[in-house]
Design brief:
Structural class: mainly alpha
Shape: globular
Distance between the termini: 46 Å
Largest sheet: none
Number of domains: 1
Number of strands: 0
Strand content: under 5%
Radius of gyration: 16 Å
Length: 76
């Protein structure tokens, strides 16, 4: 597998997952959301990147909070 394909799979499946989460909630294909995100980024000169980073941070923070709630060792 070439390095470019490895990088592509990492970005699509493991980096943040904001577009995938939005697609699952709204019932829209992830590829279509990514495409619109790229279009809007070009039209507005990259301002949606700030929104993307905020959503990525929020999703990551939410994941850590739910993991901490389920940790049985916290109660010992």
């Amino acid at each position: 597998m070439s390095r470019l394909l490895i990088l592509k799979s990492f970005i699509e499946w493991k980096a943040f997952g904001v577009c995938a989460a939005i697609g699952e909630r709204m019932g829209i294909a992830t590829g279509r959301i990514r495409l619109w995100f790229i279009y809007i980024s070009f039209l507005t000169l990259g301002s949606p990147l700030i929104l993307y980073m905020i959503l990525a941070f929020w999703m990551n923070l939410k994941q850590y909070i739910t993991i901490r709630r389920r940790n049985p060792l916290r109660w010992l």
